[in-house]
Model the fold of this input.
Amino acid sequence: MSSVTVNNTAPGPSRARRWLSGFRERETWTAYLFIVPWIFGFLVFTLGPMIYSAYYSFTNYGVQQIAGISPTKTVGFDNYKQLYNDHNVRVALRNTFEYGLMMVPTKLIVALLLAVMLMRIGQRLGGVFRTIFYLPHVTPPVAVGVLVLYLFNGPYGIVNKALSHIGINGPFWTTDPNWIKPTIAIMDVWACGGTMVILLAALYGVPRHLYEAAAMDGASKIRQFFNVTLPMISPALFFCFIILTLAALNQFTVAYTSFFNSGSGATNEAALFYAIYLFQQAFKYFNMGFASAMAWVLFAISMLITGINIFATKRFVFYQSDARG
Amino acid sequence: MTTYGGQENAPQFLEAGGNPPVPVVRRSWRPQPRVNWIEKGVFLLLLLGLSILFVYPFEWLFAAAFKPRGATFDNSFLPHQWVWNFTGPNIAEPAPQKLFNVAPVGHWLWNSIWISTLGAAAVTFSSAMIAFAFAYFRFPLRNLLFGILLGTMMLPGEVTMIPVYLLWNNIGKFTTAHAWLPHIGTGTQYPLWVPNLFGSAFYIFLQRQFFLGIPRDYFEAARIDGDGYWSMFRRIALPLAKPALIVTFIFEVQAKWFDLITPLIYLRDQAAFTVPLGLKLLVDRFNAAGGGQGDYQVIMAGTLLLVVPMILLFALFQKYFIRGISTQGRKG
Done:
């Protein structure tokens, strides 16, 4: 950042000089004292690990290297090549994408519908229902994993019992490989309260006069929703979309609780999400080099998806330039 | 017209039926918007139905936690026979097991409580300090550093997870080699809360927004009164930012209470476990599908123990949960 040019003989100090003299101010070093914990934490827990992780991804770093038995060797792009050919990586990626494609749109739509209904029903009743719908969001994911196992139990679970009352023969949710990901996605939709509250806040932020103007022009309720509400809350929708997508890519806890046994080592290919496979590679087999490569691929995928979303939705997301109302 | 309440700065209602450019009539009595009762009724019924779906898992869990062994899956609304599955005399296997006898559950609960509280207190205070510096002071490199801070929010945890583990591993080797040092490293609980001492990007961002809302005059006035920077922070910034601090605190308590992967990576000794990791252990051990013994009542009691504190926290701080999460949408 600092290009120090001292050959400036014009009256008054140069920009660089003035910028440097900022460091002598009392305010400056006080400020640095205030943020020094963050700088330390950033170097030790973020930047340093990032550099190491990138380095490890090009080495054979594993259990022998941790124990100091054999030296660390750089292996070029071998980890990335192996990753490309690894059967389980493909399975994990496909599982993760399938799950994301099911969970993100459903959760977003359900949260939006709930938020719209809560707003239409008025503040007092809306507040009561908001509390009810938010409750699943404060349920720990390990507990959600337990509920997945028992509510959706094939022969005994209450879901299938309820379905049989209306004449549907429910699938074996937690053992049929085709139904495992939808089951987790259903429980995610159940916990849509956080998204709903964000969207509700956005809905309340839509200025009322826009609806009045639309009504005067003869727009129906449906039309108002699509031409006024949706554009006005598009930034919040977009934000939730990105957050949910990243959450889907990082799905770990619920699936791990329900379908993986740390004791017996039982695994379940239909529930093998990318983050779970990464965790197994790193902390079960201690293939640190390979797992680091997996982590960087995950980072690249996250950035790519976020980037595509930003690019693709530029036309649809409407940011107001000034304060609302 | 339906109600679109809650918009404080929305313009006053215009008289219906007037010509488009109607002058705004300021008066204390305003015509109330007509409520569409049919629409409201339909929504109310729908929401009531959905509420049952959303709340029923909690009811099922609560009932199952008090059912005797073998009755977990009878799916009755209330237990036919109420059984206290948490504590009791320790009788060997053929007898139904009690939650607090099968594992050091008391330790887990205490560990989760103190790690959540200490971690949340640490991250609240450190983030507040850092956020105050970014909000109030002007110093070289400020915008660059703040940009880096925002950038770290995009980084998935998996990228730093492995080197941070190896770092703790090395710290552990070092502290065991020097016996006069306390044992810190993998296998201890330090990795669960020590990173909280250095602030967290999301909370720093949230609190900075709050500090920016405090008028600068307050600080100037304090300065004229002879306050130093530290007492400006402590006496003016912190008390005024109390809502943001509470939001940070409860969000971090929740995050720590939810966390499975960090304890899973670092903890080996059962007595050091937190509740989520302990519950995972119980599921592995007692879930019949995973080869367990079928003491489902123990798992249900453990799950209730994990869920109830969060519901209590939410009940106590509902306002802050909602406010905190609503502000998230505005940064996008």
Notes: Chain B touches chain A through 110 residues (CB under 8 Å).
